[in-house]
Amino acid sequence: MTDVIAERIVRDPRFERLVPSGTRLEHLADGYVWAEGPVWLPAEGAVLWSDIPNNQVLRWSAADGTVTQFLRPADFANGHTLDHDGRVLACEHGTRRVSRYEPDGSRTTIVDRYKGRRLNSPNDLVVASDGAIWFTDPPYGIVSNREGYLADSELDGCYVFRLDRKTGELAIVSDHMIDPNGLAFSPDEAVLYVADTSAGRVPHGVHHILAFDVIDGRRLGEPRLFRTIEPGAPDGLRVDVEGNVWTSAGDGVHVIAPDGSELGRLLTPEAVANLTFGGPDGRRLFITATSTVWSITVGIRGAVSPWVG
Ligand code: MG
After folding, report:
1. Rounded CA gap, 97 and 127, in Å?
2. Assigned CATH class of 4-297
3. Whole-prediction pTM value?
């Protein structure tokens, strides 16, 4: 594949500023089975992402456009983010843990159990301003050997967790979801958005994003339906500085205003699993879309601090 002019569906005039007409969809890399979990590394000017079924993590360098294999085997790594020290945190299906990539190439377990029982298969994660790690734990890494290892769940559900880095306490913050997946905070951390992708796995599953009010930075209120995403499902998502939610979907990236209305879509040749803002000014969007990784320069910055992916 090569660069293309991004096809758009404009639902609201505000979308013109976010993704201007004529924006180029830049081809960065391809040849993957299911590209996921992108994170921008500001100190290196590079992006890491997972290719989950191939059990590898790739790295693209902005300096010269080269793609290298960063990790293989990768314990079926999925979502990535940065902690406040700029280190990469990963969700691993194979080890059923959240880990940290160390400079010497080793990996450290951050959390792998809840009350003594193994997690299902952590999928995606985000770090709050207080350093707490919020992550989702659906069963995709244990329901087959495609993206992990077939195994029984040791928990009685699939939860959203919050790991307090100061106390080490791991708490369930939501038991409302079937398959919680991507997640992101609003810019002021007053709202947490969490995707549920269970429609692809169970007969009465859903493909929507829930919005939760965050209470005292450590608990969640009752959820409200933020947006049902179709075609496909909202896997990974990010938020821009004005609070718009940029979510993956079966036909590309959908941009949803904070009130839940759709502003527009950026269409891609294949389904999108995830995306992240990056680049020197935070306006470069990196998109993992099935076999291919794309980049576009958009008209707004990602909400997260440069050190939080
Ligand atoms: Mg995911």
Report:
1. 16
2. mainly beta
3. 0.97
